[in-house]
Design goal:
8 strands, 136 residues, elongated, two-stranded antiparallel ribbon, alpha+beta
């Protein structure tokens, strides 16, 4: 379960880091001006093919899944990272205990929203609930 949590964090990092440019700067032909806001997306680190083989594929046995930057790095590392990992693990354990057999609804569409906090806003699922097909 621990590796699954890391793989989900690698693929769906929950937050972004916002910064304000303190001076004019150019990088690879892109001009930034002092005062511009820049959002650094840690989830992009998790999509780096140089570090993660087939990064768009969820591999819950991925050996280096924990090498993501979902909680930042260095002095900007999230102080709540351990709590967040535990919350995700407990959620998954309880979900699988209660709803062990489910799948993505092939007719549905997953949706996401981004910003300072990134989130999956819709995951259409189907499962057998005594003849009913509840959706999430």
């Amino acid at each position: 379960m621990g590796n699954a949590v890391e793989e989900l964090l690698r693929m769906f990092a929950p937050s972004s880091t916002g910064r304000v440019m303190t001076r004019d700067f150019e990088y690879k032909g892109v001009r930034f001006k002092a005062g511009d806001r820049v959002y650094v997306r840690p989830l992009l680190h998790g999509m780096d093919e140089r570090t993660f083989q087939c990064p768009m594929h969820a591999d819950f046995a991925r050996a280096n899944a924990s090498q993501h930057a979902a909680f930042g790095t260095g002095p900007h590392r999230c102080a709540g990272a351990l709590l967040a990992r535990n919350e995700i693990r407990v959620f998954l354990e309880e979900w699988f205990r209660r709803i062990p057999d489910f799948e993505l609804d092939p007719a549905g569409q997953i949706s996401f929203e981004g910003g300072m906090v990134n989130c999956v806003t819709r995951v259409p699922l189907v499962w057998d609930a005594g003849g009913r097909q509840p959706g999430v």
